Each structure stands twice: as structure tokens, then as C-alpha cells.
Amino acid sequence: MSQTINERTIALVKATVPALEASGLEIVREMYARMFENPEIRDLFNQSHQDAAGAQPRALTAAILAYASNIDNLTALAPAVERIAQKHVGLQILPEHYPHVGEALLGAIKAVLGEAATEEILAAWGDAYWFLAKVLMAREANIYREHETAEGGWTGWRDFRVEEVIRESSVISSFILRPVDGRAVIRHKAGQYLTFWFEIPGHPPIKRNYSISNAPNGEFYRISVKREPHGLASSWLHDHAKPGTILKVSPPAGEFFLAEHPERPVVLLSGGVGLTPMVAMLETLVERYPGTPAHYIHGTHDRDTHAMRDHVRELVNGGTVVQVTDFHQTPLVGELAGQDYDRAGIITDEWLIASTPVAEADYYICGPRPFLRAAVSALSLAGVPSDRIHYEFFGPADELLAA
Questions:
Q1: Domains of the chain
Q2: Section 124-146 average pLDDT
Q3: Which pTM was predicted?
Q4: Does residue 193 carry a catalytic annotation?
Q5: Which of 30, 67, 129, 140 is catalytic?
């Protein structure tokens, strides 16, 4: 963030922090209502996060508050900016979309704060918005350029054909995807995701992110998707995506990925369907860095929900230095310790700290929010520096730093 914001704008934006703390969520909901009057803008967003629980509005409220609070210390926001830019590229958000968002934000501030939103305050927030927008647009332009020039690269939406569907567990299936044009694909970074454009009859177009669950190979991608009880896209994939189905896909994106050359031991920690990027990382470690000490730790309910267990065991049985520990929270009758799972119950903080090299390892973590909060908190309290704790979760935004 090499550009600058003038001191008057900084002072005015910071002065609105108390108002944002009191009315920020109302402002954001009003902002979304205004944006979604435009179908083109509405269709850019994942509508499953606009539910009654307000996951996305709450996340954006927190992000706006963080921006206002740190507008005089923008280096603190660099990781968030990268995360947002990667999400935007996955969704194919372009410079022409930014004016709609800015207009909706300023209109919402005026509507909710009323007379308190003076012309000077609105002008300051306009300057602040466009400052951040230009930073994001510049970073996104670079990412789009990288996608276009990479071997196997593309921009926009590319057609992929489902080549094979593999049932991994009672709730998770994998889909092998090859490009319809028969050309190469970008060698993604293990841990990244693909964004999909679905056109499901009876619904507006929807977009979803799914982690790539295989190591990069330049030829195909594998995604491993959990059927969510009320998941429109995941249910459609499980029920309708057969070999031959064509899906629209944007290039790999995401700032959560395995280091290019791991210099320390690696701990891959996952819960539930959070194993998908971890399997990609594990395949990469075994293939490219077989001498790197690693722990693969996974927690799930039982044998029926445990996806890719045999695949993981086959990967590490070749004499690699990977230790695998599987936790089944509530083993089924007939499950055998040492055969179906390694430990019963959940992955406790105490076990994690005692059983992994906290003094030296890089931790990669993915899973449900409570799982992530507990793991990140435990590692932080154990003294693991933040730059050795890497995490991803399948939701609208980060909630973990406060933990």
C-alpha cells in the first residue's frame, strides 16, 4: 500500500469508529440491499452467506470497522487485502464493479446515520473507499495477469468436464475435472481453491469456492465436496454432476497454501471436510518434499464420515516421514482402534501441544469455525508465532484473529 491518504480524511474516518461500532451492521445490511437491486452485482455474491444469521454482513461490518480503526496503519491490513483480492479474482470481480459498491456504501452511511453523516464525513469515506479500491484493483490486475500468462492459464470462466465421481464417505464425494478444450491447466498451489459458476434451474446464477484436493499436475483438478443439509450447490453436485457434466470454472485462487520450499516440519490439521486442502498438501509433500517431517492429523465423527482415509494411508506407507493420526469423535459399534481410527474423541488442545513440534513447525489448519478457533487459540497461547499458523475455513471471512 504505497499510496497515501491525507491526514484530514484519516481523522474524519477514525472519528466515525464509535458510530460504526453502534450502527455498522445496519449500514452494511442497507448497503447490500442497495447493491442487490442490481442483478449483475447481486450475482457476484454467494447468497448462502446473506442468510438470517448474517454471516457475510457481520464479516463485512468487522472488516469496515478494522479498516476505519487502522486507516493510519495500513500495513496491518495487508493480509486481509490479499485475502479479499484472491476472493475477488475467484469471483471475477472487475474494476467496473467498484463504483456500484462505493455508491451503495455511501448511500447506506447517509441513510443510517442521517444528519450525523455530514458532507465532509461522506467525502472522507468516499476518499477512503476509493483508496482501498485502487489498492485492490491493482493487486487483482496482477493476479489476472498471472493467470493469463501462466502455463495452462486462462481468465474468466472455462468449461471443465466431470471425468469421474468418487464416493469418499457417506457425506463427501470427489469430482475429477478436466478442461473441455483438452489443454493444460494452471499448476495451482496446494491449498488453493477453484470458483464455480452454477446455473441451477429455478435459481439465479450462484458461485461457490471448493478447495482443490489433489497436488498440482498441470492436467486436471479434483474437488472433494461435502453434501450440506441445505446446500444448494453441494446438493446439486451430489445429485446431478455425473461424468460428462460441464462446469464453469475460474482459475485457482487463495492465499492459503503450502510453502513453496518447506524449511520446517509441517503439521496438517483438519476437521471434517477441512481435509480437502490438506490432502493436496500431503500429496505435494510426499511427491516433492519426501524428506520434510510432517504430521497429518484429522478429526471426524466416525468411519462412515471419514473421507480419503485409505488414500492418505497409501500415500504415507512408502517410507515417508509423515505421521498420521485420525480421531473419531464417536466411533461406531464395530470400529477398531488402530484399524479404523487412531484415537477416540476430539483433538484436544493438550494433545495437539504435546504431540506436535510447536517450537519449530508450520501449522496448516482447516475445518469448522469452532475447530479453527480452538486450534488457533491453543497454538497462539503455546507461543507459536502467528507467521507459523496458517488457516483456511469455508465461510465468508476471517473471525479468528480475535481468538
A1: 7-149 (1.10.490.10), 158-253 (2.40.30.10), 266-392 (3.40.50.80)
A2: 95
A3: 0.91
A4: no
A5: 140
